[in-house]
Design brief:
Length: about 160
DNA sequence: TCCATACTTAGACTTACGTCA
DNA sequence: ACTGACGTAAGTCTAAGTATG
């Protein structure tokens, strides 16, 4: 069932035969499908479930056990890869946002230079918490709002 | 079309660690 | 506190499958 046509020896072994350890087998599509279904329902199996599944698929319980171990590991690896890719995208978007804000600060400083009566342009600072540009000397005097839509928080993150 | 080779996938094993009786 | 059985994660090996020139 779970074996290449050339060898029914391994097939017997995969069912718990007494011969020496069998060579690596490939599961059939049907076996893989059922295992995947089972994995979707539960990522771990209790001994009874393992036994039942093994019987149903005509595999040794140990094979079921190993399959689930590998499946969990690969599932975790895939999840990590996805998270990594997501964080990279987010980092890119934050960098972009940061660059734009720096440009904006420079523009505002330039504007300040133009209006002679105001405080020194070097006193303009960006509050890291509220994302507003303020004059450090007299904070109450000049507060420039950065529209909330400019904060490029990825949708996935906003949900949480 | 066939073949050799490189690369990928997945079954199996080993080891280390945590939990529990 | 110690011990053995058991389950799991992480790392690794390697046969089998696939892509490529």
């Amino acid at each position: 069932m779970n074996r290449l046509p050339s060898s029914h020896e391994d097939e017997e072994l995969s069912h718990g035969g007494s011969a020496p350890p069998c060579k690596k087998l490939r599961l059939t599509k049907e076996q893989s499908r059922l295992l995947e279904d089972s994995f979707r329902q539960n990522h771990t199996l209790n001994p009874k479930q393992k036994e039942t599944l093994a019987e149903h698929l005509m595999l040794r319980p140990r094979q079921i056990e190993v399959w689930f171990q590998n499946r969990r590991a690969r599932s975790k690896m895939k999840q990590t890869e996805m998270e990594c890719a997501y964080l990279k995208r987010w980092f890119g978007s934050l960098t972009e946002q940061n660059n734009r804000l720096h440009i904006e600060v420079e523009e505002l400083r330039a504007m300040k230079v133009g209006s002679s009566t105001m405080t020194s342009t070097s006193s303009l600072t960006m509050c890291p918490r509220c994302e507003r540009v303020t004059t450090a000397a007299i904070p109450s005097m000049a507060v420039v709002d950065v529209p909330a839509k400019k904060l490029m928080i990825p949708p996935q993150e906003r949900e949480h």
